[in-house]
Structure formats: C-alpha cells, structure tokens
Design goal:
By secondary structure, the chain is an alpha/beta fold. It has helices at 16-25, 39-43, 69-72, 83-92, 178-189, 198-212, 227-239, 258-269, 280-287, 293-312, 327-334, 352-355, 369-378, 383-386, 406-425, 478-491, and strands spanning 6-10, 30-34, 49-52, 78-81, 95-97, 103-109, 125-131, 134-137, 143-146, 155-158, 163-166, 218-222, 244-250, 275-278, 318-322, 359-361, 434-448, 451-464, 472-473, 495-500. The protein folds into 3 domains: 6-189, 3-Layer(aba) Sandwich (Rossmann fold), CATH 3.40.50.880; 198-386, HUPs (Rossmann fold, 3-Layer(aba) Sandwich); 405-500, GMP Synthetase, Chain A, domain 3 (2-Layer Sandwich), CATH 3.30.300. Helix 8 links the parallel strand 13 and strand 14. Helix 6 packs across helix 13.
C-alpha cells in the first residue's frame, strides 16, 4: 500500500471512480475505501485528507452506509460530496430532510462570502446536482458557503476544523469549475503536493517486486499482448530479468499479425525468454460446433488454463504468478456493496494461483487504465502497443456470431485489419475507446460485377468511453464509413455487405457476445 494522499470513502455513488481519477490527474495519490471501513483501515495509508463520496441512500435509511464515527474526529481536512455532505451534517448535529423533488441536472451556484473552497471560482457558474434529500440545518460551527436559486445550503464550511461539504458533484465535467474546487481542497486546504507520477510508481513497483522475490523463486506471466499484461511484462523484466518468464498462448483466435507483433516486441526487442504455445488446434477443436457465447468463453478459459499449466510445469523454481489486475477491478471487489455478481467466465480464473500453488503478484493493482498506458511509455513499450484498444480474452471467437471455424476467422481477420488500418491512416484511432469488426451469421444478396452473390455481413463497431463501464457509439463521418465499406467489400472475398452499430452501453454491451 502506498502511503499518503487522499482517502476517498466510497458510499456507492456512480461517480466515485471519477473522484479518484480527477485527484490522480492532479499528481496526488488516492484510494477508494469502503465508506463503512474502520478508522484503522483509513489510517493504514496515512492520508493527508479525506473525501466522503456521494451515494444513492438516504442518511436516515435503516440500511444506509455510515462511516466509523472515529473517522469524523480525525484532525484531517474532510470534504463531503452530496451524500457525504449529508453525513457530515447528520453526525455533526445538523439536520437532513427528505420529501423534496429530486434535483438532477445543472444549477447556478452563488457564494455569500469568500471561502477557501471556492477561491478563484466565479459567481453564477454551473454545478451538477443529483440529490433528493438536503441539509436544512447546519451543525454548530458551519456556515453556508454557497446556494442556488432553489437550494439555500448548496455548500457549507467549518474553516476552523477544515470541514467542507458540497451538495453537487465537482468530479463530473458538467460542474464547470469542479477541477478548481477539488484542487483548492487538495492543495490549498489539504496541503498535499503533486508527487504521484509513473516515474515514482515505476521505482516503487520495481522495489516491491524485488522484495517479494527476495528469497528466491521465479515469476511467470500469461502474456496476451494487451496493454495490461504487456506493461506487467516490461515491469517484471526490468525488476527481475533473470527470474521472469512470460508465456504467450496463441489460441488461434487472434487478430492478423498479433502473434508476430508480440514475439518481435518481447523476444526480439526486450530479449525476454518468451515461451510461445501454439494452441490453435486445441482451441478450435474444442470450439467446433459451439455457438453459445458463454460456452465459448468457458471452453476458451479451460483450454487456456490447461495449456498454461503444462507450459509452466516445464519451468523450474516457479513461485509466483503475475497478473494484470487494475484498480477498477480492486474497487469492484472491495466496494461496500460487494463485488459484481456478473463476471464474464473468461475473466473468472482467479483460482489459478491456488491451483498451481503459486503466490499472486499484481504490480498494477493501484493503477487506472490511463496510468497503465503512461507507465508503458515510461518503460519503453512501443506506442502502438500502449495505445491499442482493449481486446477480449476469448479473441475473435466472440466476434464471430455462431460456429467458430478457420474460414470465418480468415474472413474476419482480413476485414478487421482493413478497418484498423483505416482508423490509423485517417488519424481517428485514438479518438475511439474500442473499435472492431463482427462477422454475422447471415448471408445477403449482392452484385459483384455481372454476377449475383450471396455472401456474408460484417458489422463495424466503434465506441467512446473512459473506462468501458459505459460507452457511446462513435459518430463516425459518413465519408470514412463509405471508404471502409468499399475497401472491405472489394478486398475480402465472401463479404458483400457492411453495417455500422449505433448502440450505446447501456442498453447494449460493447462486444456483441
């Protein structure tokens, strides 16, 4: 655990990860901690300031999450956001009241007097509200720091005890001054310094890895070629180059040129002792005739573990298994609401270290995805690898709707490569969170030259997102779509029609299966 920074107590707001991301972007370390965690858990990280997050509950509800009262007695600056403001009011001797119309959306904020929290912020700017209950009586020592036309106490402050609270959400972009407000709290009020960056993290992570392996042993990693596992590989190679072996399982479901790219980067460029397992026959044999998406994932997960175990068994002295777990995965598992009940099967391989009797090593578990990319650049990974879009564990198997076979894989690989090449050539690849082609299990009538065709349909998908939890379809220029469609139909034998997916998440998912 990294010491210092900001402890963010999680009370269930949909925006909690945004709070953490905003503070990390300032160069200050922070952690999301369950809102009802004991004060001892918070003190483990020696925070310089505390934020109480928003949440969907009413503070008076029987099952509402409540902080350890000792947390509120700490001599540290505290900022309450939305539900967090109501908690400060309730536990400080004020009064919160329900029964009002829910206020959701923009509101203009006004300040009766100057305050540390709103220093440098103009009067009348837009804030984003999302609440039902509201503070109607402030605790002793507090004064109203802001109001709106409909909300008399939109913010409150006790500058003597360094307690501040806002009823709106400064972490969302709709609050136009939110970044300045959070900076005021973190730097001016909290006195923290911007000392969190990937250069310092790199040094700490390398030291931690060496300490974990100080008594000998060897670490292995299932390298996929994706951003997370690639960064873990580069980090381990720098930390313990003589005791690290990456294992790359080629499942026969990869994009065109994927295997060659991984081998060139890690074996040739970095000089790692990369082990490549050609498992195409095993995977495709097990997948033959299988059309159910969940069954595909389970088969791919099982065969991967079997081949990975077999390869690892040939390496002497293995004691640790590295994985590319990221901070959003950790947040989901420690939330006071409990972990998500819907985990895709191919991700559910958490039992692998126990099965192989290995210790788990997760060097990226404190990082968000954008920080992982930055660390990858710091470690010298190629930009094309660091900035690549997410790619699913089951590979192209979940982008072929229906039976997975070599002919369909060949068609999809060609179409997907044309699509990706065009996005790079046109300069729009980096505007998109994830883009890919899907081969549909239908045939449509077409005309090629003077002949009638009855060929396949390719669906193109492109979305924008910050973390993949929600996503919106990318508004691609029609001229781009026309060129991509023309190239695929003219160059890929067996495809006669292209469609573009305009579904957002929710209600759809990013992947089709």
């Amino acid at each position: 655990m990294i010491k210092g920074g900001v402890a963010i107590l999680d009370f269930g707001s949909q925006y909690n990860q945004l709070i953490a991301r905003r503070i990390r972007e300032m160069g200050v370390y922070c952690e999301l901690i369950p809102g009802n965690a004991p004060v001892s858990r918070i003190l483990e990280m020696s925070p310089g300031a505390i934020i109480l997050s928003g949440g969907p509950s009413s503070v008076y509800a029987e099952d509402s999450p409540q902080p350890d009262p000792a947390v509120l007695d700490l001599e540290l600056p505290i900022l309450g956001i939305c539900y967090g403001m109501q908690l400060l009011a309730l536990h400080g001797g004020g009064r919160v009241q329900g029964g009002f119309d829910r206020e959701y959306g923009p509101a203009r904020l006004f300040y009766p007097e100057a305050s540390l929290l709103f220093d440098g912020i103009e009067d009348g700017l837009q804030a984003w509200m999302s609440h039902g209950d509201r503070v109607v009586q402030m605790p002793p020592g507090y004064s109203a720091a802001a109001h709106t036309d409909s909300l008399p106490i939109a913010a409150m402050a006790d500058p003597v005890r360094l307690r501040f609270a806002v009823q709106f959400h400064p972490e969302v972009n709709h609050t136009v001054f939110g970044d300045r407000l959070l900076r005021n709290f973190v730097f001016s009020i909290g006195g923290l310094k911007p000392e969190w960056n990937m250069s310092t993290f790199r040094s700490r992570a390398i030291q931690h890895i060496r300490e974990r392996l100080s008594h000998g042993g060897r670490v292995i990693l299932g390298l996929s070629g994706g951003v997370d596992s690639s960064v873990v590989a580069a980090l381990l190679h720098e930390a313990v180059p003589d005791r690290f072996t990456p294992i790359f399982v080629d499942n026969g479901l990869l994009r065109k040129g994927e295997r060659e790219s991984v081998e060139e980067t890690f074996r040739d460029h970095f000089g790692m002792p990369l082990i490549t397992i050609d498992g195409a026959e095993e995977f495709l044999g097990e997948l033959a005739g299988v059309t159910d998406p969940e069954m595909k994932r389970k088969i791919i997960g099982r065969v991967f573990i079997e081949l990975f175990e077999k390869a690892a068994g040939r390496i002497d002295g293995v004691t640790h298994l590295a994985q590319g777990t990221l901070y959003p995965d950790v947040i989901e598992s420690i939330s006071f609401k409990g972990p998500s009940a819907t985990i895709k099967s191919h991700h559910n391989v958490g039992g692998l270290p126990e099965r192989m009797n290995l210790e788990l090593l997760e060097p990226l578990r404190e990082l968000f995805k954008d920080e992982v990319r930055e660390l990858g650049r710091e470690l010298g990974l190629p930009e094309a690898m660091v900035s690549r879009h997410p790619f699913p564990g089951p590979g192209l198997a979940v982008r072929i709707l229906g039976d997975v076979n070599r002919e369909d894989l060949h068609i999809l690989r060609q179409a997907d490569r044309i699509y990706m090449d065009y996005l790079h050539e046109s300069g729009i690849y980096d505007e998109i969170w994830q883009a890919f082609a899907v081969l549909l299990p239908v045939r449509t009538v077409g005309v090629m030259g003077d002949q009638r065709t009855y060929d396949r349909v390719i669906a193109l998908r492109a979305v924008t997102s910050t973390d993949g939890m929600t996503a919106d379809w990318y508004r691609m220029d029609l001229e781009h779509l026309a060129k991509i469609s023309s190239r695929i139909v003219n160059r890929v034998k067996g495809v006669s029609r292209i469609v573009y997916d305009v579904s957002s998440k929710p209600p759809g998912t990013i992947e089709w299966e």
